[in-house]
Amino acid sequence: MSRLPLDGIRITDFTWAWAGPYATMLLAFMGAEVIKIETNKRPDHARLRALATGLGSKDPDLSPIFNDLNLNKMAITLDLAQPKAVALAKRLVGISDVVAENFRPGVMNRLGLAYDALKEVKPDIVMLSSSSLGAVGTESKYAGYAPIFAAHGGLAYLTGYPNARPVPLMGSSDLRSAATSAFAILIALYHRARTGEGQHIDLSSVETISVLIGDALLDYIMNDRIPIRKGNRDEIMAPHNCYPCQGEDKWVSIAIASEEEWQSFCDALGNPPWTREEKFRDAYLRWQNQDELDRLIGEWTINYTHYEVMERLQQVGVAAIPSFDGTELFQDPHFKERGLATEVIHPKIGKRIVLAPPWKFSDTPAQISHRGPLLGEHNEYVFGDLLGIPKTEIAQMEEEGVFY
Questions:
Q1: Rounded CA gap, 367 and 221, in Å?
Q2: Is there a single domain that holds both residue 207 and residue 187?
Q3: Number of independent structural domains in the chain
Q4: Whether the Cβ atoms of residue 387 and residue 81 lie closer than 8 Å to each other
Q5: Of 126, 173, 181, 363, which sits 20 to 30 A from 24 (CA to CA)?
Q6: Element (H, E) at 91
Q7: Which residues contact 312 (CB under 8 A, 6 or more apart)?
Q8: pLDDT, tens digit, 9 for 90 and up, residues 74-133
Q9: Where a domain ends, among 331, 361, 392?
């Protein structure tokens, strides 16, 4: 097999919950050796609970969510409240290329593991510090979880239906922040390869959300307009919505961008009389009369399954796709052909279907090579093989609780 893009890159991973671990997992998919640091006193949040599911098992190795966010990684345990453990963490940083953490600003400094301290150990280290609102500023000490990222970043305000409350976005905001973190690390590694210089990345998860709504922010800055929630509708296209189909809670999305597509759509419907009415004559008039247009289209789509509508409209060049539920998504032929799901075997969870990397590289294909690690599973390899600590010394530190 070809070498993976990040073969030879080692990451010391202090991250926890979702936004940090997903970032380092994306890099692990590309071949980076990711060593996750935890402690029995305070294991990764995702091992024990999740905002979506509540409390999980008391066994930290039974969490499917943790497994899905930490594929391809190794895991060690260090009680960073002990100076010997901090010294070991620094030794690991000394043979690493990247350090990643997503604690509240100030935590790494109190542990003695801030960027300046780690730079003394490894001058060209790349360090990611991901937090809610960044390490500087009047709000830097605020706590941060995914719904806060979306709300403070502005995206939640824009998500939902007119005259209804904003929709709180959950874990997807963590994953957007994580993808940005992964890109930032890659750019920093590229910079280091060209210049020999490492750097400290101060990433605000709220800002990673705000940059996704640049059009809304500019509309306010330039035109003093505050955007409103508009459900599934578009600023220009009409029809542009989800429409009901046969079955319980079955829907199809339809979007029409040109007069040619509109005419093809009308032909697919059999050109009912309402399609020739003056109020639907052109794109602007259709946009002005969306309420009635959506009602009439829904009266047609409800007679068919969402797959039937999709096939009928796609055949004539109109964009249409079902709103898949989980089962339909995994059974979709395109999903299967892309290989977007794969199976891992976990010693405690058993067989687990996980999502594969969503991108395809022709020469260096990203891959899932290992399930998520057990708590402290790789202590012997990291401390013995990588750091060269004698077994007797390891045993002594275990008795002292350094590995905990």
A1: 43
A2: yes
A3: 2
A4: no
A5: 363
A6: helix 83-94
A7: 268, 304
A8: 999 999 999 999 999 999 999 999 999 999 999 999 999 999 999 999 999 999 999 999
A9: 331
Question: Do 247 and 314 share a domain, yes or no?
Answer: yes
Strand partners, 354: 342
pLDDT of residue 1: 47
Q: Note whether 78 and 148 are same-domain residues.
A: yes
What average pLDDT does this structure show over 261-286? 97
User: Are 60 and 188 found together in one domain?
Assistant: yes
Residue 189 shares a structural domain with residue 253: no
Residue 161 sits in the same domain as residue 193: yes
Q: Are 140 and 133 in contact (CB under 8 A)?
A: yes
Give the DSSP letter string of 290-311: HHHHHHHHHHHHTTS-HHHHHH
Query: What's the rounded Cα separation, in Å, for the pair 21 and 179?
Result: 10
CATH code of residue 195: 3.40.50.10540
Tell me how far apart the alpha carbons of residues 144 and 137 are, in angstroms, rounded to a whole number. 15
Domain boundaries, position 79: 10-212+339-400
Question: What global pTM score does this model have?
Answer: 0.93
The CATH number of whichever domain residue 285 belongs to comes to: 3.30.1540.10
Say if CB 40 and CB 48 are below 8 A apart: no
What distance lies between CA 322 and its chain's CA centroid? 23
Residue 138 falls within a domain, yes or no?
yes
320 CB contacts (<8 Å, ≥6 apart)?
252, 253, 254, 255, 309, 310, 313, 314
146 and 208 share one domain: yes
From residue 287, alpha-carbon distances to 218, 236, 253 in Å are 23, 7, 16
**H helices present in 242-325, as ranges:** 259-269, 283-288, 290-301, 306-314
- CA-to-CA separations, 209 to 152, 155, 159, 219, 299, in angstroms, rounded: 9, 7, 13, 17, 37
What is the sign of the dihedral through the CA atoms of 36, 40, 42 and 47?
A: positive
Which residues are registered as beta bridge partners of 320?
A: 254
- Do residues 294 and 313 share a domain? yes
State phi, psi for 372 to the nearest 5 degrees. Answer: -65, 150
